[in-house]
Amino acid sequence: MAIAQDYDLVITGGRVMDPETLYDDIANVGITDGRIVEISKDALTGADEINATGHVVAPGFIDTHFHWQAPIGYRFGLHDGLTSSMDLEMGCAANLIPEWYAAREGVTQANYGCAASHEIARSIAIDGASGDNLLRGPIAVLETRKQSGWSQTKADYDTGNEILRILDKGLQDGAVGIGSTLGYMRNSVTSREMFEVQKVAARYGRHTGVHTRFTPDNATNENVGAQEALANGLALDAPVSILHFNNPGYRLTHELLTRLSEQGHNVWGEVYPYSAGATTVNAVFMQPENWVDRLGHRYEDTVQDPITGDFYTTASFEEALKDDPTREIILFKMPEEDSVRWLTLRGTTMASDAMAATPLFGAWDTPSDQIGNTHPRTSGARAKAIRLARENDIPLMQIMSILSYNAAKHLGDTGLKAMQERGRLQEGMVADIVVFDPETVTDNSTYAEGLVPSTGFKAVVVNGTVAVRDDELLSVFPGQPIRFEPEAAPRFEPVSEEAWNLEFSTGMPDIAPGLPPEGGN
Fold first, then answer.
1. Which of 70, 349, 398, 414 could form a disulfide with 407 if both were Cys (CB 3.0 to 4.6 A apart)?
2. How crowded is the C-beta side of 16, counted as CA atoms within 13 Å?
3. Which residues contact 243 (CB under 8 A, 6 or more apart)?
4. Is 80:382 a contact under the CB 8 Å cutoff?
């Protein structure tokens, strides 16, 4: 145990909450060299002190679905209690994982991580995407989506193997897992391709995060999409996360995840506390033949421009599709009252699905009046979850679990060391910590003003360094990479009919239909 006066930071008199052990008591926390050294009722002193009387002291919040992986994006997450920011849905260009991490080393205020992107791998293999844009991480798709091959072309064996090889390279270089936006490629990614994509992750013991094939859709199709990804995971004995399943049919998806988890499978799902989502104009599921004709929605009731606040008409939507196909839209798709219900679901994670605004890669301290608008979940998802819990008598420990521990537990079980030592308020763990007033913490962002920072955070501590104090973001950059150690050799195995025949049949003859095998009569 460290000597008290040697602590770098002490947090005194707060309600210390640990979702793993369910510890919940008034105590003092001593931090040295970026780790929690002591949790005690004894008085502690240190070089810096945070008086947490009347405040909750909890593990730093972990977001596994944060698209705005840029200094200005991390800013809004930190104001909302976010200490670890990852994009495990869209992900990053798998052939540039080392470069993506290197660009953030020593200059990032929150922890950062990325998956190998299935969509971007298709853009590279089919559309020939290349160049500096791919270094932009998830935001690269604002350019790559201007092509159509990635979303409309079925891959043959050669192209499919190139997609898989690119993904394998990302995992070899330490990507957290594979992220698949399958729902945006639903007509071009065959069920076989999706299985093989999950197989690449399975070889490394890592998870595949899936925006499922029919999200958003009706309750039947939503669950069919979840069942596809889960069945693949079970056959491969591989982890799976079902992304933003807070859509029609969510109760069945949650039951599937819960029952499989109880059987020992590392599967989980995520929610966010908003009735509206966000996407781009050219998303396949937003086209008139699907959104209007098949599902029966009206653009006038469901699709909003975050900049102007206006709702689209069929005519203005088609005009936007022609002029600016990757323009962001806000999509109203579920009853508002369901936002509270999702927060009560046991075992889920709360991920914001944070969207970017302009300037996409602005400095972290860009003046607020120079920043565009986007979905309010980017800046308010975590504080809103706490506020809704307060207003609806949801146990605070439940919210701390879905904001921190649940994601850390599932990712840690894949072998990710950075998550095995976060998401917990325990001695020996990394000192990623939030200190907030449970009675006043609140989201301030709205659909009209989506980037108003949350308030009520006494402190946000990242790797033992205070990054937010009394709702003010400090000019410190303690963020660390969330990744696996790179491996010396790839694990890629090409797919072929010949290999399949040898493994799964008694020697299927490779012959033309109607002809006997060689040597037959």
1. 349
2. 23
3. 65, 89, 209, 210, 211, 212, 215, 269, 270, 351, 353
4. yes
**Could you tell me how far CA 302 lies from the centroid of its own chain?**
24
Q: Are strands 56-59 and 7-18 parallel, antiparallel or unpaired?
A: parallel
For 167-212, the pLDDT digits (tens) are 999 999 999 999 999 999 999 999 999 999 999 999 999 999 999 9
Burial class (CB within 10 angstroms; exposed 0-12, middle 13-18, buried 19+) of 263: exposed
List the beta bridge partners of residue 492: none
* DSSP H stretches of helix in 88-218: 97-102, 118-127, 141-144, 149-152, 157-172, 191-203
Query: Per mean pLDDT, which range of 23-37, 88-102, 489-503 is the poorest?
Result: 489-503
Q: Quick one: how far is CA 386 from the chain centroid?
A: 19
CB 288 within 8 A of CB 314: yes
Tokens 């859509």 belong to residue:
247
Residue ranges in 338-449 assigned as alpha helix (H): 338-343, 377-392, 396-400, 406-412, 417-420
Mean pLDDT of the chain: 95
Handedness of CA 61, 65, 69, 73 (dihedral sign): negative
Helix and strand numbers (H, E) in the chain are: 18, 20
Those residues with Cβ within 8 angstroms of residue 255's Cβ, 6 or more apart along the chain or in another chain: none
Would you tell me the crossing angle of helices 157-172 and 118-127 to the nearest 10 degrees? 130
Q: How far apart are CA 359 and CA 366, in angstroms?
A: 9
Buried b (16+ CB within 10 A) or exposed e, 467-504: bbbebebeeebbbbbbbbeeeeeeebeeeeeeeeeeee
Report DSSP state, residue 268.
Answer: E
Which residue type sits at 189? Answer: V
CB atoms within 10 A of CB 428: 9
- Residues 6 or more apart whose CB falls under 8 angstroms from that of 258 comprise 346, 347
CA–CA separation, 281 vs 318, rounded Å? Answer: 9
422-450 pLDDT, tens digit per residue, is 999 999 999 999 999 999 999 999 999 99
**To 5 degrees, how large is the angle CA 19–CA 22–CA 25?**
110
Q: Give per-residue pLDDT as tens, 455-480.
A: 999 999 999 999 999 999 999 999 99
Dist CA 463 CA 232 (whole Å): 36
φ/ψ of residue 504, rounded to 5: -120, 10
- Whole-angstrom CA distances from 372 to 163, 274, 378 are 35, 20, 12
Q: Around Cβ 150, how many Cβ atoms within 10 Å?
A: 26
Burial class (CB in 10 A: 0-12, 13-18, 19+), 60: buried
508 band by pLDDT with thresholds 50, 70 and 90: confident
Round to whole Å and give the CA distance between 246 and 267: 16
Cα 419 → chain centroid: 14
Rounded to 5°, angle at Cα 299 from 294 and 305: 140
